[in-house]
């Protein structure tokens, strides 16, 4: 029984070499001709014109010291000038509203175990978090991880900064405190 002949490596098809278009060669020739023309016209500039322009530049520099003396008169004018600032009232920070607290919601999870993991991560940052269970009609039970309440925005901002360092983006919630009297 005869075996089919194996193809040798030398008989395999070589990728076809595409010839460079004649338009590309014409473009290169045109660019080379343009560069040569530029060099010829640059060489044709008379030297006398260049020397005249240099001499004119030197004469301007000689005139410049007089202009400089005249342009710096403000040293005399400045001590004579009087600046009167406008009256601006002193900044008085607002007193925080005692009936409002700030709460940070750091996450909302379907699984209680996931909420506990995030609560532990927050505890490593030195903050205390708690988990609220919320039952929605459409989506079932959710577990929210809550940090706070904070009485002032500055304390809340410090807590946000430490949470962002561990890649937790909290949601700020403003809550009114119900006072019973």
Give a nutshell description of this structure.
With 181 residues, this protein is of the alpha+beta class.
3D shape: flat
What is the quaternary state of this protein?
Answer: single chain
Provide the succession of SSEs.
HHHEHEEHE
| Average pLDDT reading | 80
Counted by DSSP, the helix tally is: 5
Structural class: alpha+beta
Provide the low-confidence segments as ranges. none
State the helical fraction.
40-55%
Give the end-to-end Cα distance, rounded to a whole number of Å: 108 Å
The side-by-side strand order for the widest beta sheet comes to 2-3-1-4
Radius of gyration: 41 Å
Proportion of β residues? 15-25%
| Sheet of most strands | 4 strands, antiparallel
Q: Could you give the count of β-strands?
A: 4
Please name the defining characteristics of this protein.
four-stranded antiparallel β-sheet, 44% helix, alpha+beta, 181 residues
Can you offer a commentary on this structure?
This protein is an alpha+beta fold and 181 residues long. It is built from 5 helices and 4 strands, in the order H-H-H-E-H-E-E-H-E. Strands 2-3-1-4 form a 4-stranded antiparallel beta sheet, with helices on one face. A hairpin with a 3-residue loop joins strand 2 (129-136) and strand 3. The chain is flat. The termini are far apart. The model has no long low-confidence stretch (mean pLDDT 80).
Topology:
Layout: H1 22-43, H2 47-71, H3 74-80, E1 100-109, H4 112-123, E2 129-136, E3 140-150, H5 153-165, E4 171-176
């Amino acid at each position: 029984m005869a075996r089919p002949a194996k193809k040798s490596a030398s008989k395999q098809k070589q990728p076809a070499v595409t010839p460079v278009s004649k338009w590309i060669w014409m473009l290169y020739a045109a660019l080379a001709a343009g560069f040569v023309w530029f060099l010829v016209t640059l060489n044709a500039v008379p030297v006398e014109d260049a020397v005249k322009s240099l001499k004119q530049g030197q004469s301007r520099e000689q005139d410049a010291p007089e202009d400089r003396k005249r342009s710096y008169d403000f040293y005399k004018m400045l001590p004579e000038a009087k600046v009167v600032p406008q009256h601006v009232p002193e900044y008085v920070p607002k007193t925080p509203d005692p009936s409002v607290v700030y709460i940070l919601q750091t996450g909302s999870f379907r699984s209680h175990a996931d909420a506990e993991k995030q609560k532990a991560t927050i505890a490593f940052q030195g903050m205390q978090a708690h988990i609220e269970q919320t039952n929605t009609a459409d989506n079932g039970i959710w577990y929210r991880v809550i940090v706070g309440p904070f009485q002032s925005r500055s304390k809340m901002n410090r807590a946000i900064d430490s949470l962002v360092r561990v890649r937790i983006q909290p949601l700020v919630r403003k809550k009114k405190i119900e006072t019973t009297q």
